[in-house]
Specification:
The chain has 118 residues and is mostly helical. The protein has a single domain, classed as Chromosomal Replication Initiator Protein Dnaa, Chain: A, CATH 1.10.1750. Helix content is 61%, strand content 0%. It contains 6 helices and no strands. It is globular and about 30 Å long.
Length: 118
C-alpha cells in the first residue's frame, strides 16, 4: 500500500486507499461491522426507519457494500428488502455526506478501518 499524507480526520488511515479485502466479505458481515461501529442493531439497518442515526447507518452499509464490496444494487436491495433505485439514491447520498458532513465522514472511515482487519 502506498503512503498517504491526506488524512481528513485525526486517528484515521488514508481514505483514498483501495481496501481490496472487503470485496470478499458477505453482506451480513459488513452489516455487523456497521452495526458495531454505529451502535445501530442490524435489524434497524434492515428496517426503513427514518431517524438520522438509523438512516446514516443504512447509507454507510449500502455505500461500502456497493463501492468496496462490489455488490450490485439489486443484491444489496434484496438483502435489505428494498428496491435497487433506493440503494442507488442512498449510495449517492452517502457519497455527498462523506464529502460535506464531518461526523458522517468520520463514522464512514471508522467502519472502513474496522473492515480492513478482516
Amino acid at each position: 500500500m502506498r503512503n498517504c499524507n491526506l488524512k481528513p480526520y485525526e486517528g484515521l488511515s488514508c481514505p483514498f486507499l483501495k481496501i481490496s479485502n472487503i470485496a470478499n466479505l458477505s453482506l451480513p458481515h459488513i452489516a455487523n461491522v456497521v452495526s458495531k461501529v454505529t451502535d445501530v442493531p442490524v435489524m434497524h439497518i434492515k428496517k426503513s426507519l427514518r431517524t438520522r442515526q438509523f438512516s446514516d447507518a443504512r447509507k454507510i452499509f449500502m455505500s461500502i457494500a456497493r463501492k468496496h464490496g462490489k455488490y450490485s444494487t439489486v443484491q444489496i436491495g434484496r438483502y435489505l428488502d428494498l428496491d435497487h433505485s433506493t440503494v442507488i439514491y442512498n449510495t449517492d447520498s452517502a457519497n455527498d455526506l462523506v464529502e460535506y458532513d464531518k461526523q458522517f465522514s468520520k463514522t464512514y472511515y471508522k467502519v472502513l478501518e474496522s473492515l480492513r482487519g478482516f
